[in-house]
Structures are given as C-alpha cells and as structure tokens.
C-alpha cells in the first residue's frame, strides 16, 4: 500500500528527512513515532500530497504521489493534528460538503455518509453545529470526514491530542475497528496508544528511520530485567556483595542492583540484560555456587525505554561489577 524510497526533505539549510525508506502492506496498522522535529509530520504530509520531497519517492498503491497527486489523494483519508473543521456548519451539512468535494456521486452520497456516521458514532449529533460539540465528538467528525469516501489508507496525525481518558479509549477503539479493513498510519506521542492499537512500529529520529518492528519485539531486542530471589542450598550465610559480584559475571548481564528478598536467609537482586536471554546462564551459575533460585521474574524493556534509547533520551548504563569471593561461608 505504501512504498517510500530514499525520501529527503530540506527547508533551506535544515534537513527534515535524510533518506527514509520503508514499505507498509495492505491492512496493517502502523505506529509512526519520533520526538518533536524528527520528521514524522513531514513524512505524513508528503504521503498526503501537501509537501513535495526534495528527493526520493513516495507511492500509494503504486501511484507516485508527486507524479499523480490527485489519483493518490483519492486513496487517502487524512486527519491532521489540528483537525480543521468548519465549526459554523452542522455535522450533517459538513459531511455532505466533504462527500461532494471528494467526488462521491449524489446518488451514493447519503449511503456513504450514513456508513461514516454509524462507524464514528455520530448519529446523536448530526443536527448540531460543530462548534457545539465536545473535543471527543469533534475528533469523531474528523475521522468521519477522513473515511466518508471509503479510502484504502488512513493517515492519522495525533488523533487523541487534548482528549480526556474516556474519549481516548473511544477513539482508540474506533481506530482499531477501522484497522481491520484499512491500512492505517498513526502518528502519536502516546506510546501506550501504539501498544494497544498497532501491529508495527516505525521510529524516526533526526530525519532517519531508527527502528522498524512489532511493539513487543522492539522490547525483546533491547533486553530488560530479571528479578531473582536466592538462598543457599547448604544453609550457609550469604554475603550480599559477593552474590552481587557473582551475578554481574553471568554472561549477558549488564548491571546488578539489590532488590527485596523473602525474609531471613534470602537475597533479592534485579539484573539488567541486553538482547541475550540470561536465564539459562543464571541457573547454571546458581548451581555451580550452591545457590537455590526461589524466584525468577523477567520483564522486557518497555516501549518507552526503547524509544528513549533510540532517540537519544537514555543515559549510559553502569559498568559491570568486579569479582569479590567468597559467595557463602
């Protein structure tokens, strides 16, 4: 549905995009993430035909958006961040106006509008002026105008900005429903929104694509933490610093900090690791040193942590601990 190859865009000396390339198949819901100024909105505006790239190509269903912008726009439903609406118009009249501008024949217009109204839950406000509506209903009107012509591709730029928690849940549910039938590109700063609605994540930073994967696999790739509770198999006393040092030597461990144990004779630690699963090595190390693992709990790096690391928002990790024997006495 979407193919972007070597896309660049410069505004004078400022370079917004630096060779971005990716493809999106039909029927996929994609989260497009990045910090402010990373190039998200520029990419989406190029796809929507509002901005011309400096170099590279962007095509929708095989149609180059620069060569035939009218044909490509027919395939797109676009909800920009500021959701421009004619607030003095009634909802019904506004959707009729959009349908006419979109070239929907008059004989089919009423059915197309009815379908959009039903899907976006607007039946109760059809006779109201748009300025009378809550922010949540205005977003619904924005989505309705984006889908009234039944496009193949939806481009949604920050669709839940300014909504209260209940409205956010409603709009997310609507986007998920639309994603069952259409290709959706969703730009947002709310990472939980991506996790709950998207099957794929693209992360852009400083005009370059820095990640492309499923939300859960992004976290797995960046590692996470394993929380352990240990005790001695022989009943010997445990020395916290010695155990800490031993754990730091386990292959794949990048950091160790103390955590809560489970009472007398136990110690708890939280181990940070990279892409490699450390649990097998951890078990083998415990056996070698006559330790019993009472609890092993793994947690992958969150999408927020992954985002911060890939976009330069995470500080350096601490060094590995030195070896200090003995383990038990």
How far apart lie the N and C ends?
65 Å
How would you write the strand order of the largest sheet?
6-7-8-3-9-10
What oligomeric state best describes the polypeptide chains here?
single chain
Reported by name, the CATH topology of the largest domain is Rossmann fold
Instruction: Tell me the Rg in angstroms.
Output: 26 Å
Indicate the mean pLDDT: 88
Please, how many domains? Answer: 2
Order of helices and strands: EEEHEEHEHHHEHEHEEHEHEEHEH
Under the CATH scheme, the architecture of the largest domain is 3-Layer(aba) Sandwich
Strand content: 25-35%
Which residue ranges are poorly predicted, with pLDDT under 50 across at least 5 consecutive positions?
Answer: 315-329
Number of helices in the DSSP assignment: 11
Helix content: 25-40%
CATH superfamily of the largest domain: P-loop containing nucleotide triphosphate hydrolases
Structural category: alpha/beta
Keywords: ATP-binding, Nucleotide-binding, Transport
GO molecular function: ATP binding; ATP hydrolysis activity
InterPro entries: AAA+_ATPase, ABC_transporter-like_ATP-bd, P-loop_NTPase
Domain ABC transporter: 2-231
Q: Could you explain how this protein is built, in words?
A:
There is one protein chain. With 329 residues, this protein is α/β, with parallel strands linked by helices. It has 2 domains: 2-218, P-loop containing nucleotide triphosphate hydrolases (Rossmann fold), CATH 3.40.50.300; 219-310, 2-Layer Sandwich (Alpha-Beta Plaits). Helices cover 33% and strands 29% of the residues. The protein has 11 helices and 14 strands. Helix 6 (165-179) links the parallel strand 7 (153-157) and strand 8. The longest helix is centred in the middle third of the chain and has 15 residues, at 106-120. Mean pLDDT is 88; it is low at 315-329. Keywords: ATP-binding, Nucleotide-binding, Transport.
């Amino acid at each position: 549905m979407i193919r972007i190859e070597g896309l660049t865009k410069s505004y004078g000396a400022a370079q917004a995009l630096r060779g971005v390339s990716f493809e999106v198949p039909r029927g996929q819901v994609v989260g497009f993430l990045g910090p402010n100024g990373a190039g998200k909105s520029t990419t989406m505006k190029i796809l929507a035909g509002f901005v011309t790239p400096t170099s590279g190509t962007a095509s929708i269903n095989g149609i180059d958006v620069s060569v035939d912008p009218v044909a490509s726009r027919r395939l797109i439903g676009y909800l920009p961040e500021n959701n421009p609406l004619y607030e003095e118009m009634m909802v019904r009249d506004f959707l009729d106006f959009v349908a006419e501008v979109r070239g929907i024949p008059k004989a089919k217009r009423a059915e197309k509008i009815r379908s959009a109204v039903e899907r976006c839950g607007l039946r109760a406000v059809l006779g109201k002026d748009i300025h009378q509506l809550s922010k949540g209903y205005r977003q619904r009107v924005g989505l309705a105008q984006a889908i009234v012509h039944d496009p193949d591709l939806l481009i949604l730029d920050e669709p839940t900005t300014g909504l209260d928690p209940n409205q956010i849940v409603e709009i997310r549910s609507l986007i998920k429903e639309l994603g069952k039938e259409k290709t959706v590109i969703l730009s947002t700063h709310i990472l939980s929104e991506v996790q709950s609605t998207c099957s794929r994540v693209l992360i852009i930073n400083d005009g370059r694509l820095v990640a492309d994967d499923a939300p859960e696999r992004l976290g797995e790739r960046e590692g996470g933490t394993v929380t352990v509770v240990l005790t001695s198999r022989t009943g010997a006393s445990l020395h916290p610093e010695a155990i800490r040092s031993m754990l730091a030597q386990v292959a794949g461990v990048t950091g160790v900090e103390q955590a809560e144990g489970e009472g007398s004779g136990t110690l708890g630690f939280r181990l940070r690791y990279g892409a490699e699963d450390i649990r097998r090595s951890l078990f083998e190390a415990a056996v070698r040193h006559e330790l019993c693992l009472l609890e092993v709990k793994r947690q992958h790096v969150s999408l927020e942590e992954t985002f911060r690391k890939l976009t330069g928002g995470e500080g350096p990790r601490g060094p590995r601990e030195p070896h200090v024997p003995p383990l038990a006495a």
